[in-house]
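Lecture 7, part 2: worked example. A protein chain together with S-adenosylmethionine.
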Amino acid sequence: MRLLNDLLDYIVGQYSLANLSLGDLEALVEHCQGAELVVELGTQMGNTTRLLSMLAGQVVSVDVFDKLSLIEDPDQSETYRKDYDLHPHDLAIVSGRLADRRNIRLVQDRTDLAAKTAQIPDKSVDVLIIDADHSYTGAKKDYTAWLPKVAIGGTILFHDAVSGFPGVVRLCDELAESPDVFEIGARSCRTSFRTFKKCKAKESR
Ligand SMILES: C[S@@+](CC[C@H](N)C(=O)[O-])C[C@H]1O[C@@H](n2cnc3c(N)ncnc32)[C@H](O)[C@@H]1O
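Predicted complex, written out as structure tokens:
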């Protein structure tokens, strides 16, 4: 069984969804299957976006793509400049890769700003996936900007909530104590996602 999992991890990693482990795939299927609207922050090459479009009714995915100058934080800018050089993901390239999927809308903007510019109604997002700026400040900006867009009972997934990304872990630890969301699911080494549900507390206060 271990070998089978390792083999599947290898195949998934090498050939299709390079940024996801098998456990990540399971988490996405669990939370996104049947969702009406999924928003993904951080598209990169659109590999996960394609998978999401097979699970959900509508997918909006946001990235700066080739407009890297929109990223203000110098460390993050440097990180994603290198990532871009490795996997060039101009908007035109990614749009072309996903052209056969009719239920995807790509938005080229900084992820926190897109909460306003993407014209998504409040409380309409069933699943929000945060996977763009992995610094504490950047991930928190994304969470804060997008929380009003998430439906009550909607799901928020943070990717890369593991020791290599201490800012994401710190934010998730803080949110575990927040009245606005509650964490669901046992933490597991099979997935780097941490998952929260938006609760009513904020509405009733
Ligand atoms: C880890 S990759 C996303 C991987 C993608 N979700 C997947 O599973 O294949 C992060 C992406 O976020 C983008 N990004 C980073 N910070 C951003 C920001 N503040 N606004 C918009 N895009 C950002 C980068 O350009 C990069 O493509």
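The mean pLDDT is 90. Strands lie at 37-41, 58-63, 104-108, 125-130, 150-158, 181-184, 194-198. Keep this in mind for problem set question 3.
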